[in-house]
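FAQ: What does a multi-protein file look like?

Like this. Sequence, then tokens, then the next protein.
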Amino acid sequence: MPEIQLLAQVHDAVYFQYPEGLDETKVITKALSLVEIALAEKGRQFVVPGEAKIGWNWASADPKCKLFSDGNPEGLVKWSAQAPDKRVRTPDMERRL
């Protein structure tokens, strides 16, 4: 996937970034298809799917987050193609980095 930049692989996770102008659903759907694993055991076939979290930093977006007094609104949230993330990065977020 030339449109992404691989950042890290830790245990069972792959971290990558991509330009904000790209179609998020297409990028993440394609990436998930590449990490999906098909297995067969005793004649039974099944797929181990991937899942994605998205955000502008690696901490969770959580009101209980102790790292940020505002709950880290630009943090990681579970991604779903059926319920796309509607958050928009603001200039205030860039200053926090």
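And here is the next protein:
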Amino acid sequence: MAGILSLAWARVRADAWLLLQRTIAATVSWVIAKRVFDHHEPFFAPIAAVIALNASLGERGSNTMRLLLGVGVGIVVGELTLVVLSGGYAALALSTFAAMTIARALGGARVTIGQAAASAILTVVSANDQAGTERLFDAVIGAGVALGFSQFLFSPEPVGLLRRVESAALADISHGLELTAGALERDDYELDERALNSLRDLRDRLGELTRLRRASSRVARHSLVWRSQMAPVAHEKENADYLDLIGSSCLMLTRTAIAIKTPERRTFAPSVRELAKVVDDLEKGLGDAQTRQGAADRALDIARRLRRNDTPSKPTLAAAHMAAQMVAVDIMVFAGVSSDQAAGAIQASNGEPRVSLPPHTPRIPFFSRRRRE
């Protein structure tokens, strides 16, 4: 029971600031509709504000426009249905189906389809000349407040959006490599399976990164606060692309490493643990050029040492050496070294490639300082 309560509290604490934003937006929308425009029961203004902001960071502006599209389609369909059928069960069924069909045909997301249906139902059930237009006006008020929150007052910093999920992915990769090193050191075949599963599960994290790559670009394009961040976001997106490669090469490294037989497993374990430490250090300093350079240098050193060693006679160990070198190359490229330089540096016995400077995290606007969304 204590564990369940602790987990519930952790969830609430993690999203407390976002929940507070939705509450404030709902209240502001109600006040505007009620006091400024004198709507009698402007219930949809706060509802629209909450629904619009009830989306993942980076997608709240898009969610607002989807909501408005759905409301507009539903009201128009509902009003036209009333003209033809004058209400009743048939009008309710027809307007609901038609509104959802049109919303889907327009490429609407689920929130668009749901709002189209809800708006059509309310319009037909109310059967009031003012119900549809007032609902649409309330939706515009709620959406306007939501856009003010999502695009200006509490607009998430786009480079920070990417770096948070990059950091989480790197932490998962480091953990998977640590498990692999432990399995090799202890000759623990149960730990082998845990290491493999850990890196396979990384696909979910990388899927989230793919979503945020698109979202960060939208934030930079559409937010008045972050429009100047288009170039840094594009640069960070290029770096983020290489996380997929690191995840794939680390999974290959684990698969080849756990195939090694005793006693070679223990001799190879330190190289895997070193790579895990490099990834861990990189995760803690993504925005720091010196940290990235240090990670690239250490990855290069590991790859060179593996290459300088005589080619192992056993195929499984040789494959593991090659996989570790590939991981090192991917780490270097993610840190900011070009792929040609990274591969060439491993072949050469000297020379240290330099990483490009990472995009800086810009100053957070006053209203967004409460939490770096």
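Q: Is there any per-entry metadata?
A: Some entries carry free-text notes. For the entry above: Residues 158-347 form a domain with the Methane Monooxygenase Hydroxylase; Chain G, domain 1 fold (CATH 1.20.58.220).
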